[in-house]
């Protein structure tokens, strides 16, 4: 399968190039970056540390890619989505941090384009999302109440907070428990914690590739569901699975649950 990697010189883009180049099922035929990127023209394989692939870093344009994988920034992801709409290229969107209009544009675009969109491509994270849903449903009627807090830890370079994955975990809990209040951090004297509240806490430290803990706090006991990446390849592998899955699907908005059969 021929893939184009958008954001190819980034932390994730380099891992997608590297992991794909080591798997005979995939061929990186395009490595896409902004027009101002200083490495434009350089070989994507050399940038990713896997040797010359004969694929120069380039701006978004027509290619013979079967599918595009995007790990970039929100504005750029929307730009490449527009390109995919024009050239009818299935798209895997991994970028996070979209605003509401961008979110709506992605959903609208999926009416005419097959899109896999997930804040985490990690199989383990998406399985934990299912386990979190089960826990939330099971605990929602607990008479003494359950306080859900989401703690995420990422590397110092991450630009958005909380993570898209943490927000998705929160939405899963909110929907399962009929809760609607989302609070990001606490300071001052917020007083006693309301029962109908989900808290988010974003740690930024070192080179952590991604860690999420969902805390179910009760009176007398606590459940913590945790998933932690030790490197970025879980996301790259998941994105390639998504690319392989989406290639023959009709227009629509798909998640990693569809890709993984969860
Ligand atoms: N869904 C998932 O499983 C995962 C999602 N992510 C998300 O992926 C995104 C990227 O993460 P990460 O790789 O760490 O970030 P990086 O900043 O390392 O990579 C982003 C890349 O996008 C490039 N870029 C910026 N503007 C444009 C543009 N206009 N056109 C094309 N490329 C552009 C950047 O170039 P430049 O350096 O010049 O700005 C950079 O190379 C983030 O939103 C992150 O949250 C990350 C890991 C897993
Ligand atoms: O920026 C990152 O690194 C990651 N971002 C994604 C998110 O915001 O959920 C996925 C993963 O946690 C790594």
Q: What features would you describe in this structure?
A:
The structure is a single chain. It is built from eight helices and twelve strands. By secondary structure, the protein is of the alpha/beta class. The protein has two domains: 2-121 and 232-260, 3-Layer(aba) Sandwich (Rossmann fold); 123-228, Dihydrodipicolinate Reductase, domain 2, CATH 3.30.360.10. The two termini are 24 Å apart. Helix 3 packs parallel to helix 4. The protein has helices spanning 11-21, 44-48, 74-87, 100-109, 123-139, 164-177, 233-246, 256-260; strands spanning 2-6, 27-32, 57-58, 67-70, 91-93, 114-117, 147-154, 182-184, 198-204, 211-217, 222-228, 252-254. The strands form two sheets. A seven-stranded parallel beta sheet has the order 3-2-1-4-5-6-12, sandwiched between helices. It has a five-stranded mixed beta sheet with strand order 8-9-7-10-11, covered by helices on one side. The protein is elongated. The model has no long low-confidence stretch (mean pLDDT 97). It is 34% helix and 23% strand. The protein binds NADPH dihydro-nicotinamide-adenine-dinucleotide phosphate (NDP) and the ligand O=C(O)C1=N[C@H](C(=O)O)C[C@H](O)C1.
The CATH architecture of the largest domain would be 3-Layer(aba) Sandwich
What name does CATH use for the topology of the largest domain? Rossmann fold
Strand order, main sheet: write it out.
3-2-1-4-5-6-12
Number of domains: 2
Number of strands: 12
Q: What fraction, in percent, of the residue positions are helical?
A: 25-40%
Counting copies of identical and different chains, the oligomeric state is single chain
CATH class of the largest domain: Alpha Beta
Give the class from helix and strand content and strand pairing: alpha/beta
In N-to-C order, the SSE pattern is: EHEHEEHEHEHEHEEEEHEH
Cofactors and ligands = NADPH dihydro-nicotinamide-adenine-dinucleotide phosphate, ligand LZUJQKHR
**What is the tally of helical segments?**
8
Main location: cytoplasm
GO biological process, one term: lysine biosynthetic process via diaminopimelate
Domain Dihydrodipicolinate reductase C-terminal: 125-260
Binding site for (S)-2,3,4,5-tetrahydrodipicolinate: 155, 164-165
